Amino acid sequence: MAADIPQVRAGENAALKRWLPLLGIVVIVLYCLAPFYWMVVSAFRRPSDQFSNAPLPLPFSIQNFKDVFASGNGFGRGLLNSLIVAGSVTILTLIIGMVAAYTLARLDFKGKNLVLAIIITTSMFPGISLVVPLLKLFVDIKWINTYQAMIVPSLSFALPLAVWNLTAFFRQMPQELEQAAMVDGCTPAQAFRKVIIPLAAPGVFTTAIITFIAAWNEFMIALSMTNKKSIQTANVIVSQFTGATGRDQPFGSQMAAGVVVTIPLVIAVLLFQRRIVAGLTAGGVK
């Protein structure tokens, strides 16, 4: 009987080791999804039930979504503005970031590591510290209530991380690829465009998704640099919902708008999750 005790304990330890990681995963998933679940449930409640704590939206209602897209809110225009700003930031970040990263990865020059250190250091600046000087500058050059007033600051926040990520990715690619292309008659620019960029697609795609999500969710700069509804992004317009009377809290409408704003990001991540994972893990094993 005494000899069976160690075997029982070994079996319990094995079961604990098998189930404990799964339990940790379940806790993390629930922790991440709980806010989104509550946002969806609150969005589908009736406006009169918006502060209910019931786990399901009964009776089911889409009135909050109708209120979000009411003509006076300007939410549809805000979505278009968010798409213009986030799309422009993503495209410009990739164009500038790929050229800068390829240069830093392939060329040997004095101070290259210092340049990389400065680039990553600039990403550490808190955005709030730049709002006041940027606001003063944009007022002077009459950029307030323009797309470039939102795109240029977002570009400065997105570029350091993009250059750093792409530099690490390009460094892992063998230089023999460009050399072989140039032996076949390509110029250095053609070798970069026709050989390197297609092979770097996973890293470029991952950088694009991360940049787009960051630009889509940006709020502080968009709020500070615009005061006209026709140019504001969806996030800013949601924060300025006033409710039916202008004084009540439009909690249900804000939750419905949050669902609408989140859907494009969820769809993008679900569609391209394999490429994102491939880009994030590329180079992890040599």
From TrEMBL:
Q: In what way does this protein cross or attach to the membrane? A: Multi-pass membrane protein
Transmembrane segments annotated in the record for this chain:
19-40, 79-102, 114-135, 147-170, 191-216, 251-272
**Which PROSITE patterns does this UniProt record tie to the protein?**
ABC_TM1
Q: Which InterPro entries does the entry mention? A: BP-dep_ABC_trans_perm (IPR050901), MetI-like (IPR000515), MetI-like_sf (IPR035906)
Q: Which family does it belong to?
A: Belongs to the binding-protein-dependent transport system permease family.
Return the protein name: Multiple sugar transport system permease protein
Where in or outside the cell?
Cell membrane
Q: Which organism is it from?
A: Kribbella solani
Q: Which GO terms describe its cellular component?
A: plasma membrane
Q: Give a Pfam family name.
A: BPD_transp_1
Report domain ABC transmembrane type-1 positions. 79-272
Primary subcellular site in the record, as a coarse category: membrane
**Keywords assigned by UniProt, alphabetized:** Cell membrane, Membrane, Sugar transport, Transmembrane, Transmembrane helix, Transport
Q: What are the recorded Gene Ontology BP terms?
A: transmembrane transport
